[in-house]
Amino acid sequence: MPVNRHDILIAFDVTNGNPNGDPDAGNMPRTEPNSGKGLVSDVCLKRKVRNFVSAFPPGVTGANQFGILIQQGNILNNEIKKSIDASAVAPAEGEADVKPKRGAKAAPGDNKAENAMKHLCKTFYDVRTFGGVLSTGDDVLKGSAYGQVRGPVQFTLGMSVDPIMMQEITLTRCAVTKEEDAKKERTMGHKHIVPYGLYVAKAFVSPLFADKTGFDEADLKLFLESLEHLFSNDQSAARAEMSVRAVFDFEHVGTQAASNESQNRRERQLGCAHAHKLFETVRIKRNASSAGSFPAAFTDYDVSVDGWAGGRHANFPGVTLHRLVG
């Protein structure tokens, strides 16, 4: 069954940690200079999803596989070439006889490029979910329209609700790294932390691009599950306390009766309401007890949704709210 359109809001926080260091600023927490609010890159959030899928792939796989292309140790051109060779030997069902439309002329290798792209999407979860640039080698995908895949799932930057306060901590170490420092009793180091910050990011699932990459309901279920556990197995000295506090999934289900399935499918793909209007019904604000000071914990905030009862809203027919966390 094709997936519906989803607009998703994720709230997560950090306590005494660095949620996403900026390599251009000595690995200090990323900030937006005008407001002083903290940032977490979309690439960082995608990494957490990839890590979750790699560690907890679904037990029952169907036609799609759940490999991860973008991961440490992978040589992308080698992995892409494997898929090109595999698709040439055993293309997916119905792909071997792909022909151009009447009156159109297919460039040499286009069918091979299309088969290779589909094979990569089928093999790698992150390619059919987030897309990717596949034309990095000297092969049939280079210069082909199939060399760039736009994935159905995209994240925004995460931004903190309030400006963040950064703190630099000096560390001491009794061991040394170089022989010439052997007589030193200790060496010094530094780390940057955010004492507390509550961040909000958004994600979007496009049915149109899902159809093109083969992203299906099982993939969507796995993605939503990963959002609930983004930081559950990602603890480190820099990020010991990061938690997902809320996940609001606005699913566009359509307003038409079952007898008008074609129009209902159009609504499910196009969307039954603008995403920003849906997100505006989520209220995340400081409570009275914490006014006038930097937020120190999640309890300093109130999180609510306006007008939703039982997952439905009078102003947004055709949209169902799933409150996955919080």
Task: Produce the secondary structure layout.
Elements: E1 6-17, E2 21-22, E3 28-29, E4 37-40, H1 42-55, H2 76-89, H3 110-123, H4 125-130, E5 131-133, E6 148-150, E7 153-155, E8 158-163, E9 167-173, E10 187-205, H5 207-213, H6 217-228, E11 242-252, H7 261-270, H8 275-279, E12 282-286, E13 301-305, E14 319-325
Antiparallel strand pairs: 1-10, 1-11, 2-3, 4-8, 5-6, 7-10, 8-10, 9-10, 11-14, 12-13
Helix pairs in contact: 1-6, 2-3
Would you summarize the structure shown here?
The protein is 25% helix and 27% strand.
Kindly describe this structure:
The structure is a single chain. The protein has 326 residues and is of the alpha+beta class. The chain is 25% helix and 27% strand. The protein has one domain (6-325). It has helices at 42-55, 76-89, 110-123, 125-130, 207-213, 217-228, 261-270, 275-279, and strands spanning 6-17, 21-22, 28-29, 37-40, 131-133, 148-150, 153-155, 158-163, 167-173, 187-205, 242-252, 282-286, 301-305, 319-325. The strands form four sheets. Strands 1, 4, 7, 8, 9, 10, 11 and 14 form an eight-stranded antiparallel beta sheet that branches. A hairpin with a 5-residue loop joins strand 2 (21-22) and strand 3 (28-29).
Helical proportion, percent range:
25-40%
Average pLDDT figure: 90
Order of secondary-structure elements: EEEEHHHHEEEEEEHHEHHEEE
Largest sheet data = 8 strands, antiparallel
Question: Keyphrases for this structure?
Answer:
326 residues, alpha+beta, 8-stranded antiparallel sheet
